[in-house]
Design brief:
By secondary structure, the chain is an alpha/beta fold. The protein has seven helices and nine strands; from the N terminus they run H-E-H-H-E-E-E-H-E-H-E-E-H-H-E-E. The mean pLDDT is 82.
């Protein structure tokens, strides 16, 4: 409950500052893992279509609980599922891509001065993840900024839990971030970075807890001193390097 209240505070602070606010939420904590475990107990070979149907419920819980919290704080708010905002995808279950986003419903709610809370990871057939949903909506609505709130302070030169002395970057280019995401960095989904680059969305990775400045992801970033990044792959048995800030 305290984590939800913290998210609600971030959202309402942005709203009180005079912004139109559209928020995309992921499932809470271990919800997705717990749903996967339940499915495996009942049918280890469940179809991807039914797994998508199941896993999408985690995000729906998040948006309803967060909207209730904001409502209780006295702010106008509405929660919307992926299909309600017109998030259209292809039919490749568990790995679909966004085809089109219809922003009409969201614009209508914003015109009523409501905060809009959208379920990530959902569409009228499904796709990459909540950060991908957020970037797609930012591009569709022409948002000034798309902030990705997460459990880290930003993008580091390496995984700070594994590499001593890893430094947080003030900014990183789309291409460099895409390289890291593809190699296994779990800060952003690579599809969200691809989309931000394609539609020139101002992107920032920022902590949900510290309130400190995060990392800006942009077309051209400052050249780093002593530039190099070790991209620690998700599978640590595979040795991979992502060199960042260097000339071709």
């Amino acid at each position: 409950a305290e984590r939800i209240r913290n998210v609600a505070r971030i959202i309402t602070d942005a709203y009180k500052a005079g912004n139109d606010v559209v928020v995309v939420l992921s499932a809470q904590g271990d919800t997705t893992d717990e749903l996967i475990e339940k499915a495996a107990e009942l049918n280890p070979r469940a179809s991807k279509r039914e797994m998508d149907m199941l896993l999408a419920t985690g995000e729906q819980q998040s948006i309803a609980l967060c909207a209730m919290t904001i409502e209780g704080m006295g702010f106008p708010v509405v929660s919307l599922t992926g299909w309600q905002v017109g998030m259209n995808t292809n039919s490749t279950y568990s790995n679909a891509r966004i085809k089109r986003v219809d922003g009409e419903r969201i614009r209508s709610e914003l015109d009523k001065k409501r905060i809009v809370i959208v379920a990530g990871f959902q569409g009228i057939d499904k796709y990459g993840g909540s950060d991908t949903s957020a970037v797609a909506l930012a591009a569709t609505l022409g948002a000034d900024l798309c902030q990705i709130y997460t459990d880290v302070d930003g993008v580091y030169t390496a995984d700070p839990r594994k590499v001593k002395g890893a430094r947080k970057l003030e900014e990183i280019s789309f291409d460099e971030m895409l390289e890291l995401a593809t190699l296994g960095s779990q800060v952003l989904h690579n599809r969200s970075v691809e989309m931000a680059k394609r539609y020139d969305v101002n992107l920032e990775v920022i902590s949900s807890f510290s309130g400190n400045p995060g990392t800006k992801v942009k077309e051209v970033a400052k050249t780093m001193e002593n530039s190099h990044v070790v991209g620690v792959a998700k599978d640590t048995n595979i040795a991979r390097l992502a060199l960042v800030g260097l000339s071709d």
